[in-house]
Amino acid sequence: MPIDRSLVSGSTTMLLLKLLSEKDMYGYEMIETLRNRSQNVFELKAGTLYPLLHGLEEKLLLTVYEKEVAGKVRKYYRITKEGRKYLDQKQEEWKIFSEAIVNVMSLAGGVV
Amino acid sequence: MKAEEYIKILTEQIRCRRARDSVADEVRGHIEDQKEEFIRQGMAQEEAEAAAVKEMGDPVEAGSALDQVHRPQMAWGMIGLIGVLSLVGFLILYLFQRQVPEAVFLPGAIGRQLLWMGVGFGVMIGVCFFDYSRIGMYAKQITIGLCVLLLLGKLFWGRTVNGSLGWICIGRISISLQMTALLFVPLYAAVLYAFRGEGRKVLFKGIVWMLPAFLILPQGIGLVTRMILLLTFLLIFGAAVYKNWFQIPRKKTLSAIGGLLVLLPALAAFLLWQFGAEYQKMRLLAILHPEKYEGAYTIRMLRGMLRQSTLIGRGTDWLTSEQLLPASGDYVLAYIAACYGILAAVVLAGLLAFLLLHFLKVSLGQKNQLGMLMGAGCAAVLFLQFLFYLGGNLGLIPSGVYCPFFTGGRSGMLVTYILLGIMLSIYRYQNIISETAAVRAPWRIRILIER
Predict the structure, then answer these.
(1) Which among A33, A75, A80, A81 is the top mutation candidate for probing chain B, defined by the most B β-carbons within 10 Å of its own β-carbon?
(2) Which of B357, B370, B410, B421 could make a disulfide contact with B124, Cβ separation 3.0–4.6 Å?
(3) Is residue B440 very low, low, confident or very high in pLDDT (cuts 50, 70, 90)?
């Protein structure tokens, strides 16, 4: 089922940081991983991904380095200490938010 | 749409040309990965490329979003502060000069000084717009070139001005070698950048590349300048070792450098005592016992003047021809305290310290390692100079050091503006010049594009 993009866009940063908190990745790898883990629900476009990554790098939440793998030079992103702090904070917010949604929706008529 | 067409449209949205190459490389890699995946799934070459490009999304939207991130930034606040300090410094020097015409606060005619300050400010802005990573590419060549040029200048046009050797005078323009030597600081940082990953050899090379700055200095004088330069070079080298640029044992090397930093003043004092000229020995004694030695006249007078200063000043009664300090132009901060009050001196010194320390902090936080070390080196040398100046003006050490904004003289002013410009340039291009772009030679980029 295609879902409303605005539902995802606010939390894309959190999702990307979460992926990078597990291991360093390059852009294409992030899109693939996100797609697989969300069972094709999150189809992040590269055109959205790179501005986001570069913005996070500017805010010093990520750092970039180049690595040659199988003859290809790729830009790998790594989460910084500040990035991890930011991720913790976003996860906390998300927990409160999602619990609130669940509470409201289930009280309203048992949808969830 | 073809991949290259997509990349062209996307990068054209990014106004800063310098940022385009690294974005293009990354996007190109992404499309290729996607294309290979589609081919694996059974698509033909062209079909796979078109599908991969379609997956990317709208190039204009992506390009515009990237343009927002990769924009040059001007440190307007810092430029404003530099402007204010320049004008306040000039005004004070002008007032002091008018009060005591026979002293040298502002060498040369007022109009010309003001004109040169404008030129210097313009040079700073020009350097700020200049992409500093180009200095990084040709650091060795520039260092050697500058050194040879200054040595030739010294040989053919070397002069003695105001009793101190070490000026190059061509026509009406005179260049102070002591001040010009500071230009080697950012160059040294850039040279070290080229030695990354070279291992132990760097211990030798790192010392050799310190030498050009000392080579051009005039013999026998400029001891404080030499100390400042050596301290800065050691700090730069230490920072590079700390950042593990050379892959040498960090703890051992850093403790050796730390040891040198502590021993150096002691060694310098010892050498002076053993081999220095008589007046240098007198100076050394004068620092330790200013009340006993005849030569400590300046320090005694300076301390007396500061002791009688009040929080808010009482006007310029200290500035008279009868009781003028020798080399009064080197004690502007002390005179500010005496004439306008301690508060005024503290505020101005505080603003200058804030400016330099802020630049140091911004530089150390740079992602680009070349920018980090060049900027930190510039900030460190200016700050060390300021500390020595402060020490001199407080009557703790014999002064004679230049102070940005508060010492007259064109060479010092121009060199200061150039160093400030380099730091502004590093701030300006922080989200544009990627680490890899900084080491790549421009001709190689061109060849890649032409292919």
Answers:
(1) A75
(2) B421
(3) very low
Number of H helices, E strands in chain B: 22, 3
pLDDT tops 50 at residue B448 = no
What number of CA atoms fall less than 13 Å from residue B41's CA on the CB side? 12
- What is the largest distance, in Å, between two alpha-carbon atoms of chain B? 96
The helix/strand/coil state of A67 is: strand
Structural domain contains residue B249: yes
Residue B447 domain-assigned (yes or no)? no
Question: What was the ipTM of the complex prediction?
Answer: 0.84
Domain-embedded: residue B451: no
Which strands make up the sheet holding B164-170, listed edge to edge?
B158-161, B164-170, B173-176
Cβ contacts below 8 Å, chain A against chain B, sum to: 67
| Same-domain status, B63 and B187 | no
Number of structural domains in chain B: 2
Q: What is the pLDDT of residue B220?
A: 62
Residue of A44, A58, A68, A73 for testing the chain B interface, max B β-carbons within 10 Å: A58
Locus of tokens 């300046």:
B298
d(CA B70, CA B66) in angstroms, rounded, equals: 6
Enclosing domain of residue B18:
3-70
> Nearest by CB to A75, which of B26, B34, B61?
B26
Residue B130, CA distances (Å) to A19, B365, B371, B433 in order:
38, 20, 13, 12
Put residue A107 in one of left, alpha, beta given phi > 0 → left and psi -120 to 50 → alpha. alpha
Q: Clarify whether residues B330 and B256 are in a common domain.
A: yes
Core vs surface per residue B72-93: b (16+ CB within 10 A) or e: beebeebbebbeebbebbbebb
Q: At what angle do helices B410-428 and B342-364 cross, to 10 degrees?
A: 40
Q: Which of A13, A44, A54 to mutate to test the interface with B (most CBs of B within 10 A)?
A: A54
Q: Quick check: B66 and A28 CB within 8 A?
A: no
Q: Please report, for the domain that includes residue A10, its CATH number.
A: 1.10.10.10
Residues of B at the A interface, defined by Cβ within 8 angstroms = 10, 23, 25-27, 29-30, 32-34, 55-59, 61-62, 65-66, 68-70, 365, 367, 431, 434-436
B242-259 residue pLDDT tens: 988 998 888 999 999 899
Task: Give the minimum alpha-carbon distance from B64 to chain A in angstroms, rounded to a whole number.
Answer: 9
Confidence class for position B415, pLDDT limits 50, 70, 90: very high
* Number of domains chain A contains: 1
What is the rounded distance in angstroms from the CA atom of residue B323 to the CA atom of residue B339? 14
Of A56-65, A72-81, B351-360, the range with the highest mean pLDDT is: B351-360
Please report residues of B whose CB lies closer than 8 A to that of A55. Answer: 68-69
Query: Do the chains contact at B69 and A55, CB–CB below 8 Å?
Result: yes
Give tens-digit pLDDT for B43-54. 999 999 999 999
Task: Report pLDDT digits (tens) over B69-90.
Answer: 888 888 999 999 999 999 999 9
Residue B113 counted as domain residue: yes
